[in-house]
Specification:
Elements (H helix, E strand, L loop, with lengths): L2 H11 L4 H9 L2 E6 L16 E4 L2 E6 L3 H7 L5 E6 H7 L4 E5 L7 E3 L1 H30 L2
Parallel strand pairs: 3-5
Antiparallel strand pairs: 1-4, 2-3, 5-6
Helix pairs in contact: 1-2
Length: 142
C-alpha cells in the first residue's frame, strides 16, 4: 500500500481524516497518461491528457505509481508527473477524476469535490501571494 492508499483508508474509516487525505493529494505528484504526439493524437500546445469516457462522464486518470499506470495501460503509455495542486488548478468543471483505477483503493472525484479543491488551492495561492507582497513591502522599509 502507498501513502495515498493509507490516507484513503483512513478517510473512509474516519471522516475527520478527510482533510489529511486532501492535503496529501494536493501535495503529491501523480502520473497522468497523455496522448502519444508521434501518432498524431496530441494537440498543439503541449501534451494533452488521455481522457476516458464512461457512464456519460469524462474521466482524467491519475496514478500514484508508474506501476499502477502501466498495469492499467501498458509500458508504452506516455505520461507526465503532475502535482495534485496543479491538476486541481488546470481541471475544468466537466471532468471527473479517477485515482488509481483498478486498484483496491481507487478513488473517484466528482466535479463538486474538484470545485471545492480548486477553491482551496485558489485561497491558498491568494494567501501566499498576499504574504509575499507584504514581505516585499517590509523589505523596502529597511
Amino acid at each position: 500500500m502507498t501513502k495515498i492508499d493509507d490516507a484513503i483508508q483512513m478517510a473512509l474509516d474516519d471522516s475527520d481524516m478527510q482533510a489529511q487525505f486532501y492535503d496529501l493529494f494536493l501535495n503529491s505528484s501523480f502520473y497522468v497518461p497523455v496522448h502519444d504526439e508521434e501518432r498524431g493524437e496530441g494537440h498543439d500546445g503541449g501534451a494533452q491528457p488521455l481522457l476516458v469516457a464512461a457512464n456519460d462522464n469524462t474521466y482524467l486518470m491519475l496514478f500514484d505509481t508508474i506501476k499502477r499506470l502501466t498495469d492499467w495501460a501498458d509500458e508504452t503509455v506516455k505520461y507526465l508527473s503532475v502535482p495534485g495542486h496543479v491538476i486541481t488548478q488546470i481541471s475544468t468543471s466537466d471532468i471527473h477524476w479517477v485515482l488509481n483505477y483498478g486498484t483496491e483503493m481507487q478513488k473517484f472525484f466528482e466535479p463538486g469535490e474538484i470545485a471545492w479543491l480548486k477553491a482551496v488551492v485558489e485561497r491558498t495561492n491568494a494567501m501566499h501571494q498576499k504574504g509575499m507582497a507584504e514581505g516585499a513591502d517590509g523589505e523596502e522599509g529597511k
